[in-house]
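Postdoc handover notes: sequence design on the structure in folder B. Input tokens:
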């Protein structure tokens, strides 16, 4: 069957989902390590180890400046936050545990929301 053409309406729906998801992430009690860029000057080794830093405020900036063309690009950046966290932090650490909890929350939330769009 013919693939449904991606109308601009779809992508604006998807971007509405991104805004809802980001608001939920920022409101989560375990979001504190991810709300702003890691200050690599006060976190030794971070800049060397993590090639593509990402955080929720940067994602919000990109969303505001229309740099996400669809939900997929947005999800790639959110997962980058959690992948960076797992790479740099021990699983059994304050920030490592926060990252795992946030990833579980995000995975649950966007699958819930997809039912509506
Ligand atoms: C993701 N990641 C974060 C850090 C890190 O040190 N991040 C800053 C924590 C300090 N920030 C806060 O405590 C805070 C921030 C906002 C807020 F509203 C309340 C508290 C280190 C390694 C790493 O991989």
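Designed sequence:
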């Amino acid at each position: 069957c013919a693939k449904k053409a991606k109308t601009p309406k779809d992508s604006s729906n998807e971007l509405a989902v991104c805004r809802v998801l980001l608001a939920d992430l920022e409101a989560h009690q375990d979001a504190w390590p991810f709300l702003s860029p890691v200050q690599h000057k006060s976190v030794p080794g971070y800049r060397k180890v993590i090639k593509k830093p990402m955080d929720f405020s940067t994602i919000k900036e990109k969303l505001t400046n229309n740099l996400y063309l669809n939900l997929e690009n947005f999800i790639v950046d959110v997962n980058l936050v959690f992948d960076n966290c797992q790479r740099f932090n021990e699983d059994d650490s304050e920030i490592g545990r926060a990252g795992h909890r946030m990833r579980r929350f995000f995975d649950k939330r966007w699958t819930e929301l997809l039912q509506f769009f």
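Context for whoever picks this up: The radius of gyration is 15 Å. Don't rerun without checking with the PI first.
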